[in-house]
Design brief:
Two copies of one chain form a homodimer. By secondary structure, chain A is mainly alpha-helical. Chain A folds into three domains: about 1-50, Homeodomain-like (Arc Repressor Mutant, subunit A), CATH 1.10.10; about 55-195, Tetracycline Repressor, domain 2; about 200-225. Chain A has eleven helices and no strands. Chain A is elongated and about 75 Å long. Chains A, B: Keywords: DNA-binding, Repressor, Transcription, Transcription regulation. Chains A, B: This is TetR family transcriptional regulator. Chains A, B: GO terms for molecular function: DNA-binding transcription factor activity; transcription cis-regulatory region binding.
């Protein structure tokens, strides 16, 4: 078998197994069920994975470990916090949007992982969180982000992205890339936006005048400082 | 037994069962396990719930059905979309923050629900989503919200709230109410904020001047229009 074909079959197994793990639970799924769902023999299946734990391990590294790697590769937040945050949200969202079922399996079955893998999944998750928090802190220090608690803000942004695994339909009307863009925009607005309570919104003359007064006061303060 | 004591015991059963369902899965948990975890007899447990399916049913109505009810009670978005959105985010976040483990159980075990309950849980979830989407649309029509796809924005906001079930620690340093406030602020900024690409942020003289020019242009347009 050519390596591309092998790779495709491997991906099909991961997908079929993910769907069964979601429908019947990890405990309720056997290697025989997976082979049957794919219309292949058990022997063919065992050629790729020695047991269902090995399939779950592979799913974990595809999703969780990859998320950690992506976070580590993101742009330097010191140089441009907004740009770094935008890139991180997009990368993370793309990963979830391209592996929604796998992500749900991983989130639902962590207790079934062998201890070492559970630990590395936790470490990868921690790495993602730390990286987001670090980027938010850099933006706060640069005076670009208005955030009270960077860790909670990081969880809020991750929640926005991770939740995609529960609603995004890859066959739906909105392409993956558009969703990733919208989430990145949302995250940036959420952390950079002036407080909606103090910053008057709307297009009315009154709101515009109030904004102008605020901006003038800010500029004056800056020039004096 | 007084009714308060009965109520407290009932809540303890729901909590103990939730923890076991999370740790061992719904299939892997028996009524005996729940009784043992609580240090009560099985007879005492059966006085409250006839089987574990009944416990899961109760958890679903506590969380999902309540979320639907809250959404239906929210303020009229036509009157003040921003206020309505703030209230809806806070209410939904409070519900998740006060029932994190229960919420995770419900999300993870929907396939174990009897068909009728599964249907009502889906309907409640749909009601919450519709209500958020409707509020976002009202804000767009009023010119207050800048949102491209209200349904995706609704999912993003719900994701921010729902994800709390996976990270929030009721015994942690940040109180529930503060988290709910932060999430409401985030959501409002995300939907009302000027586009971070066109709206210069930061406190520099240059950014302030560019904002002033923008606001003047907007005001001029408004006065002419």
């Amino acid at each position: 078998m050519k390596s591309t074909r092998r790779e495709l079959l491997r991906e099909s197994i991961l997908e079929a197994a993910s769907n069964l793990f979601i429908q019947r639970g990890f405990q309720g799924t056997s290697m025989g069920d997976i082979a049957e769902a794919m219309g292949v023999t058990r022997t063919a299946l065992y050629y790729y994975f020695r047991n269902k734990e090995a399939i779950l391990q592979e799913l974990v590294s595809e999703v969780t470990v990859m998320a950690g790697k992506l976070a580590a590769q993101a742009a330097d937040p010191q140089a441009d916090p907004a740009q770094a945050l935008r890139q991180m949200v997009k990368q993370h969202a793309r990963l979830i949007l391209s592996h929604p079922v796998q992500f749900r399996v991983v989130e639902r079955n962590e207790e079934n992982l062998p201890a070492a893998l559970h630990k590395s999944a936790q470490a990868a998750r921690r790495q993602v969180l730390d990286r987001f928090e670090h980027t938010l802190q850099a933006g706060m220090q640069a005076g670009q982000f208005q955030v009270v608690a960077p860790k909670i803000a990081a969880f809020a942004i991750l929640g926005m992205c991770n939740w995609c695994a529960w609603w995004f339909d890859p066959a739906g009307a909105v392409p993956q890339e558009d969703v990733a863009d919208m989430l990145a925009q949302f995250a940036l607005r959420a952390v950079t936006g002036a407080d909606e309570a103090s910053r008057p919104s709307g297009n009315s003359v009154d709101a515009s005048l109030r904004r102008l007064r605020e901006d003038l006061a800010l500029l004056e303060k800056r020039l004096q400082g």
